Amino acid sequence: LIQGRILRYSSNMYIRLKLWLLWGFFLFLISFYWSHWPFSYLFNNSNVILPINKNLWTLSFICLLAALGNFFFVCFYLLIDKYKLWQGQPLKYIGMNSIVIYTLSSLGEEHFPFNFNIFNTTTQHIYYLLKDLYSATIWLIVATYLYHKKIFISL
Q1: Is 144 within 8 Å of 137 (Cβ atoms)?
Q2: Each residue of 86-128: pLDDT tens digit?
Q3: What's the pLDDT tens digit per position in 29-76?
Q4: Cα dihedral sign, 39-45-48-52
């Protein structure tokens, strides 16, 4: 919401960048403050207010993700709009049929080309990382094919 308002009401690129970065640092500081109450490390983390916890979706986790989102937004803004070094592919391909990709990946997540077991162990994080990267690559290929065939499905 903040990025859109800044983009809409500020025409100067440098003011936009400053405001986005300020919001990013502000959200990062809030997240850090909540997850590391001042000098809590001296007391064995006994004074942690809100730990950064994805499973609970704590406010510190949300602020940290918002801060990272701001920083990525600034990077993409500079690469795509300011310096014209990149056109946005493959994100553009996925974005044009995002609902289709989301629906198909949800329906097909338990089936062969996207889910498979090579090893009997399921505790290796590298295994899950490689399997998810493989699955994301397949969906990227599907999205690219749909984009080049000019097949766009939306609500």
Answers
A1: no
A2: 998 899 999 999 999 999 888 887 777 777 766 666 667 787 8
A3: 998 888 776 555 555 555 566 777 777 788 888 999 999 999 999 999
A4: positive
Distance CA 131, CA 2 (A): 35
CA atoms within 13 A on the CB side of 71: 10
Separation between Cα atoms, residue 97 and residue 144, nearest integer Å: 10
Token couple for 2: 């903040």
Query: Locate tokens 């994080």: which residue?
Result: 125
- Segment 10-32, tens digit of pLDDT: 999 999 999 999 999 999 999 88
Q: 70, 95, 60, 100: which is closest to 3 by C-alpha?
A: 70
Q: Which two tokens stand for residue 12?
A: 């100067």
Q: Two tokens at 105?
A: 């990946």
Average pLDDT, the chain: 85
- Rounded CA separation 139/150 (Å): 16
Single-letter code of the amino acid located at 131? K
Supply the DSSP symbol for 119: S
Supply the pTM of this predicted model: 0.75
